[in-house]
Please model this.
Amino acid sequence: MAQVSQRTVFNGSALVRLLSRLTDIGVREPRQATADRLSQWFGWTDAISLSAALDGASAAAPSRVRASASAEERECVRARAALAKAVAEDGAVAAAVDFTPFRRRHLTLQQAMEAGIGPLRGRLRALLAARSPAMARLAAVDVVMEQVLAAREHSLLGAVPALLEKHFTRLRQDSLEGLETAGEPDNSEAQAGEWLHVFRKDMKNVLLAELDFRFQPIEGLLEALRMRQPECHE
Model:
């Protein structure tokens, strides 16, 4: 089996830590602060949009809109559980010894995450905008952040299947080398089942970590919706 790297990685997201461990790629602690690195991703038009969002104001919507916040939170829980269940159901590729079916499955689940999470994020922003001018500004900022980070996020997450393929290839190669060393036939079903089981478990963990990563904006918006607005006294 492939040896797990003992290299120290920084305390980033669970997805980054997991991929670093599986692919033996060291990830160094960034020298720049998060805000400084984030600013490098903003073009001048993005900066203008962000400034407008921070300076803007919006009137609160009717209270009937606020009442649907709990329903949207339940929908977020339901959607997340459905996606996690889809990740767990990998029977269609359980016996695959080629990576192609796994790649297709991973891409399909990534598309399902995007399709499910995007509308949720939009509805939560609408609820925030209905709360107060301050919350409306927060919702507007989230719109800008999504626009700025979407392309980079899509590019980085799009590279995950290639990293998993390297892990898949290494596990398979280590298994074959182990069989040769032990003098056992190459078609040992027990050995093949062992490394495939390891890979399937690792792939599920990566997908669940990606689901957690993609849900972070949702969790942030939900947390904002749970906050009680202070009463203003003139």
Remarks:
- Confidence is low (pLDDT under 50) at residues 1-11, 58-65, 230-234.
